[in-house]
Amino acid sequence: MSKIEDALFEARPYVEYFDELKKTVKKINEIAKSEEEFKRLIEEEIQKAQEPFKTDLRIFLQKFEAL
After folding, report:
1. Residue ranges of the domains in the chain?
2. Rounded CA gap, 32 and 17, in Å?
3. Which tens digits make up the pLDDT trace of 24-48?
4. Are 4 and 13 within 8 A, CB to CB?
5. Residues 11-33, mean pLDDT to the nearest whole number
6. How many CB atoms lie within 10 A of CB 44?
7. Contact, 28 vs 42, CB < 8 A?
8. Residue 17: per-residue pLDDT
9. 3-class DSSP state of 24
10. To the nearest whole percent, how much of the chain has pLDDT over 70?
11. What DSSP designation does 51 have?
């Protein structure tokens, strides 16, 4: 399992829109060329997102950074 899949697994019980989160994370992962860029793009997505999805993204990022 990749770090992203692990973070999604860890975040799943806490997020409201898991399918949307998974789709967004996979899309960003296809664009990002490094882990630093991936985190930066997730943070940009957090800025654009509306609640409660914004919180879902924050939870994912928190789990990702903890791994």
Report:
1. 3-66
2. 22
3. 999 999 999 999 999 999 999 999 9
4. no
5. 98
6. 11
7. yes
8. 98
9. helix
10. 99
11. T
Model confidence pTM above 0.85: yes
Cα–Cα distance between 6 and 47 in angstroms, integer? Answer: 23
Q: Check: CB of residue 35 under 8 Å from CB of residue 20.
A: no
Question: Which of 58, 57, 63 lies closest to 10, judged by CA?
Answer: 63
Contact status, residue 15 vs residue 53, Cβ threshold 8 Å: no
Does the pLDDT of residue 1 top 90, yes or no? no
Dihedral over Cα of 23, 8, 62, 30: its sign: negative
19, with CB counted inside 10 A (0-12, 13-18, 19+), is exposed
Across 2-21, average pLDDT = 98
Six-digit token pair at 27? Answer: 């899309």
